[in-house]
C-alpha cells in the first residue's frame, strides 16, 4: 500500500485516507519488496535482538550479519530457530566495543545498508557512529525518529527526538524536523504537519521551548523549512486533539492534526516514547535518521515486534 501512496497520481484526499489506514505491519510488507538489503547488527548476542532477527528472516526482510561472540551467537541462533536460514552470517568480535566498531565499519564500507543496535550501550554505539574515520556521518545532524501506531488513534504519531540529541538548539531542531519529515515522506506522508511542543501554546520568554517553537513555525512560513507545515508552540493536547485545539481557539492547519511531534529535549521525548508504549499500548518502529544509513536503536522497552517494525522502517527508508 505504501508503494501505491508514493505514486503522484493518487489524489491527495485519497492518499491521506490511505495513510490514515496504515498500520506498522504494512511497513513489513513494503520492506519485503526491497531487494538485497543487508543489516549489520552490533553485539547481537541478546535474546530479544535474535528474536527480532528471527522474525525478520521469517518475513524475508533481508540478510543479517551479526557481530559479537561467535559461540554465544551460535547457541542463540539455534535456540531461536535461525540456524535453518542461509541469510544470516556471524562475524566474531572479542568485545562489545569491537562488535560496535566492526558493524559500523561494515555500513561505512557499504557492505551493509542499515545498522542495528544489539546488546551495546546506546552511547557506545552512537560514539562509533559519530567516529570521524569509520563512522556514518553525512554532514547532517543525526536524530531519532519514532513512528507510533497508537490504539484507537486514526493516524501514525511520529515523535522526535527521544533518544539522541540531549538538548538541541534551534539550528539542530531545524535538522531534526527535516530528518523526521524525510522519514514521514518515506512512509507515504507527503506533507506532514509538525507540532513544535512546549508546555503551553503561547510564547513565554521564561520557557525557551516556546521561543524555539515560534521561530520554527516562522521559519517554515518563510520557506526555511520545506515539505511540511510547522506550528508552535503547541501543548501536547492541542497538537493531537482537534477538540482541545478548538477549546483553546487555536487557528492553525497543524493544531489537532499533527503527524510529527517535535519535543524540546531528550527527557520529554523519552518519557513521551515510553508513556506511549507502557500506558497506551502503542506499537513503535524507530530509526536514527540523517546518517549515511538508517540505524535501528532499540530499547529494552520495545517488544520483538517493535524491533521488527524498526527494522522494516530502516529498510524502507534506506531504499528511498
Ligand atoms: C527511545 C528508546 C531508546 C532509548 O531509550 S536510548 C537512551 C537515551 N539515549 C542516550 O543515552 C544517548 C544520548 N546522547 C548521547 O549520549 C550523546 O549525545 C552522543 C550521541 C553519544 C554523542 O556524545 P559525544 O560523543 O559526547 O558527543 P559530543 O557532543 O562530544 O560530539 C562529538 C562529535 O559528534 C558530533 N555530534 C554529536 N551529536 C551529533 C548528532 N546528533 N548529529 C551529528 N553529529 C553529532 C559533534 O558535533 C562532535 O563533532 P566534532 O568532533 O566537533 O566534529
Low-confidence stretches: 1-11
Summarize the amount of helix as a percent range: 40-55%
The biggest sheet amounts to:
6 strands, mixed
CA distance, first residue to last residue: 16 Å
Helix- and strand-based class?
alpha/beta
The global form is: elongated
Strand/helix succession: HHHEHEHEHEHEEHEHEHHEHEEH
Describe the strand arrangement of the main beta sheet, using strand numbers: 8-7-9-6-5-10
Number of helices: 13
Distinct compounds present = Butyryl Coenzyme A
DSSP strand tally: 11
Q: Kindly provide the radius of gyration, computed on alpha-carbon positions and rounded to a whole number of angstroms.
A: 19 Å
CATH class of the largest domain: Alpha Beta
Tell me the CATH topology of the largest domain.
Isopropylmalate Dehydrogenase
The CATH architecture of the largest domain: 3-Layer(aba) Sandwich
The number of domains is 2
Explain what the structure shows.
- With 320 residues, the chain is an alpha/beta fold.
- α4 (47-58) crosses α13 (304-318).
- The model is unreliable at 1-11 (pLDDT under 50).
- The strands form 2 sheets. Strands 8-7-9-6-5-10 form a 6-stranded mixed β-sheet, with helices on both faces. Strands 3-2-1-4-11 form a 5-stranded parallel β-sheet, with helices on both faces.
- The radius of gyration is 19 Å and the shape is elongated.
- The protein contains 13 helices and 11 strands.
- Helix content is 44%, strand content 17%.
- The chain starts with a helix and ends with a helix.
- Bound molecules: Butyryl Coenzyme A.
- Butyryl Coenzyme A binds at residues 122-123, 126-127, 130, 141-142, 162-166, 270, 273, 297, 299.
- Butyryl Coenzyme A (BCO) binds next to α7 and α12.
